[in-house]
Amino acid sequence: MEYQIGADSIRLPKPVYIIETASVVGKKEGEGPIGDCFDMICDDDRFGADSWEKAESEMQKEALTMALGKAGLTSDAIRYIFAGDLLGQTIASSFGLMSFERPLFGLYGACSTIGEALSLASMTVAAGYAETVAALTSSHFAGAERQFRFPIEYANQRPLCSTWTVTGSGAFLLGTKKTNAKITEVTTGKIMDMGVRDAQNMGAAMAPAAAALIMNHMKDFERTQEDYDAVITGDLGKVGREILLELCDISGYPIDKCHFDCGMQIFDHFDQHTCAGGSGCGCSATTMASYFLPRIKAGKWKRVLFVPTGALLSPVSFNEGENVPGIAHGVVIEHEG
Amino acid sequence: MEYQIGADSIRLPKPVYIIETASVVGKKEGEGPIGDCFDMICDDDRFGADSWEKAESEMQKEALTMALGKAGLTSDAIRYIFAGDLLGQTIASSFGLMSFERPLFGLYGACSTIGEALSLASMTVAAGYAETVAALTSSHFAGAERQFRFPIEYANQRPLCSTWTVTGSGAFLLGTKKTNAKITEVTTGKIMDMGVRDAQNMGAAMAPAAAALIMNHMKDFERTQEDYDAVITGDLGKVGREILLELCDISGYPIDKCHFDCGMQIFDHFDQHTCAGGSGCGCSATTMASYFLPRIKAGKWKRVLFVPTGALLSPVSFNEGENVPGIAHGVVIEHEG
Fold this sequence. Notes:
By secondary structure, chain A is of the alpha/beta class.
């Protein structure tokens, strides 16, 4: 097929532009080192709702509404929405996006969801199926802790390898209308299970999938880290990043000179006590939208490989003694001169 | 854009062929009126595994392996897998499909998942991104009851409007290689919430979304039921079907002459005590793969609108007092002469 590159990648038949983005985050994220970059910071982590899950839905609604507003568009302009989240049956998306009344493709890629959403959204636009589409996702610290680990009222101790789920939602509008940032390539991830059984160590669970994706991507396009201004993973945190760099080195595709991780940017892990860093679908979505993307738009970075990472953690499978496999989804974002 | 038809539909740039399918079901489904059609019936609803969730993963693994075997292909031939299921964090798919080591797009569309998967899979092939892809899904009666309602050991009473989650997995291989059945058009659904709050009445929760999708589809393509040999919904059951027929009639796009529902075909609701009919992701996937598709392949039916239907039921949102919204995803399957 004409657009297949190597075993796992495609080059889009035409570039798909990032028309506009918006990020909505909670108080803690707003107080972090990149707090100034976000579009909206809410002092109330319930976002006016009466449950954590509804709060997360509110964030998605706000993020998409704001992205539309910034782009001067109404929801009618969106042909498809690609969205998902961490909650069982992806309720943050279902309830948050209902009122837009747009055709919806619900996704589940754990914390890699924005990578999966940007992949399918850009493939859809590049194929000529749509002029403008939306890709978005979210996570909420309290909702995620309750679902996956312990209710926060338990005040359980957090090991240093644990990550802190970001309360936030990032929305991207993609389309054919030319802007100064575009998605040009997609590399799709496979599930990898390296035997991690620790629900508090998501970085270790995700690093192998991220390393495999980066290696497969470089192999498919016959490139090295010299060809990128940055390779940006989603939410590996400090522990996952170390594993990633070592695995990439061993695989012959080192990324030590250009690697960034959204989870390590969003919080100050000393002052904010977030242990290994930030995590959750909202981590990579908001950090890319508000912190990294402006560098690409400004032309400081010409080509970036964005690799949101997900740990396929489920309370049911975990309690049944299963491992926590990982997945990653990669898209190349380039500056349009 | 060149392939957009009306507000919610696309006509694929080239037809995408259904290369092969496979269906794996449990004992009860095998004893039902269309039991003879399925490829594999397992007497043990645990499928050799030690939990219901792992059993569901086993079914997906078996279904995809069998579809590949029937097509004379190995997993290397699959460029992408599009899959999902009902379980939180879609663990049936994650754990069931890991060993194929193929690029995976995880989906969540509740019981409409096979519609969503066939939509995105055929869009991907038609765009030239892949030669062969897989679309599959599953559900398991015991896993679903435990997650969404009551553990089956409680032996709770089932109201007559309730449906019985099908234990089964249906897998489709789609590609460019010509066969006698093809996907030609896609209509994508929006979430609809008509206020249903009864976790035992999924038919009522889904019928409005199905009716809206059928109406939007007919409007987009300027057709009526006369243009179809069949309009096949996923798992509305007896109660949902009645609502659907009435809503379609009111909307000016009646489908009374050609409507079928997979949930009403798979069980004998009197003899098998399944109340309003079958449901679950596996219901529409297995019934289409093994019962309806052969009619299209044989040319008895020339054009069918397949509309898997999903109720966005989540134990968390439901327990927090939320409604159960519905969604539907439509694809047109045509005979290739």
